[in-house]
Amino acid sequence: MPTGKGQIGPELQRLIDLLAKLPGLGPRSAKRAALYLLKKREPVMRPLAYALAEAADKVAACSTCGNWDSIDPCAICADAERDGSVICVVQDVGDLWALERAGAHRGLYHVLGGLLSPLDGVGPDDLNIGRLVERARAESVKEVVLALPATVDGQSTAHYLSEHLAGCAVALTRLSQGVPVGGELDYLDEGTLAAAMKTRRPA
Amino acid sequence: MPTGKGQIGPELQRLIDLLAKLPGLGPRSAKRAALYLLKKREPVMRPLAYALAEAADKVAACSTCGNWDSIDPCAICADAERDGSVICVVQDVGDLWALERAGAHRGLYHVLGGLLSPLDGVGPDDLNIGRLVERARAESVKEVVLALPATVDGQSTAHYLSEHLAGCAVALTRLSQGVPVGGELDYLDEGTLAAAMKTRRPA
């Protein structure tokens, strides 16, 4: 009985095992989280169960940009005050949130849903690229900003996109200074993200 | 819009806010957890919603020992192979799990549900003490081990319990070497916990 598993009821063990899958929680912190939740059943545990089920049902990718929202088009695409002439291309929704948190971009977004990665078997058809080319062909779009990570996959994806967007009448730019080599956008401080957006340069 | 809240849909924002309440997760890691869950809707997100609701419904305190389980008496109290003559008193279920993980105790438990703490307004009536005295009066019980943290509240609770159990015909012991002063049981390594249980001494 060194794992202690036998003495935790199956419902509780199942909850702990699922909590332990969350990024940032391990087996021990999952137990602490389960104890916390059981102590806060009405204020936190039941609302969290409901919020998970509701988000799983309602939150879907925006058919225009790929952002996750419960409305389609998403709140950003539907926002008439945003600058529809600039589309910022990001790897995933976490990076979109990072740019929004920094207040670095007042235009629209396009979420690729990943990066090209031959080693992981991710090709152009696995990403939301066709819709991006379609959007970039619209007359209203003047600029596409490639806000992709400064990793090998990020840069080869940027290269692929710049080739496929060459036929569109848009200025292609990418984030410039401030993005550390090998770094992920989501971990950057807001000043760096804002500076990188301000000094973007032709792709 | 520096918080970026306005651009995350209400269902998603509610989910992130609730996840951020979990111990070990902050606002940023809650966002990462939400993104992870949305990517794993069927394998993790829906099962987690179900497990939370099920545990909130079914898991309750054992009417004998106070351990959390979906059956009453709990699996430990109902286990005929455990030594019913020794009752180990712990602060909460997390400490019970820590002792079980260490395989340090083959008897039964008693979960107080907290520690006496005049500063926080926690008195004897707020803890599961009456039931402990009742259990300790049973002829089959030979020993009560006070496995309480080596903090001021833990030690004053141990003192209070040893006074109230003085009338019962049980040997009163407490964990000995290995428990660091000011330390919480749940954070100890298993070898230390096992050693402390082995060298327990009269209270």
Estimate percent helicity of chain A.
25-40%
- Total DSSP E strands of chain A: 7
Inertia-based shape of chain A: elongated
Q: Let me know the largest β-sheet of chain A.
A: 5 strands, mixed
Number of helices of chain A: 7
What CATH architecture of the largest domain in chain A would you give? 3-Layer(aba) Sandwich
Low-confidence stretches of chain A: 1-5
Number of domains of chain A: 2
**CATH structural class of the largest domain in chain A:** Alpha Beta
Q: What proportion of the residues of chain A form beta strands (DSSP E)?
A: 5-15%
Largest Cβ-defined interface: A-B, 62 and 63 residues
CATH topology of the largest domain in chain A: Dna Topoisomerase Vi A Subunit, Chain: A, domain 2
Structural class of chain A: alpha/beta
Describe the structure.
2 copies of one chain form a homodimer. Chain A has 203 residues and is of the alpha/beta class. In chain A, 40% of the residues lie in helices and 14% in strands. Chain A contains 7 helices and 7 strands; from the N terminus they run αααβββαβαβαβαβ. In chain A, the strands form 2 sheets. A 5-stranded mixed sheet of chain A has the order 4-3-5-6-7. Chain A is elongated. The N terminus of chain A is likely disordered. At the A-B interface, helix 1, helix 2, helix 3, strand 2 and helix 4 of A face helix 1, helix 2, helix 3, strand 2 and helix 4 of B.
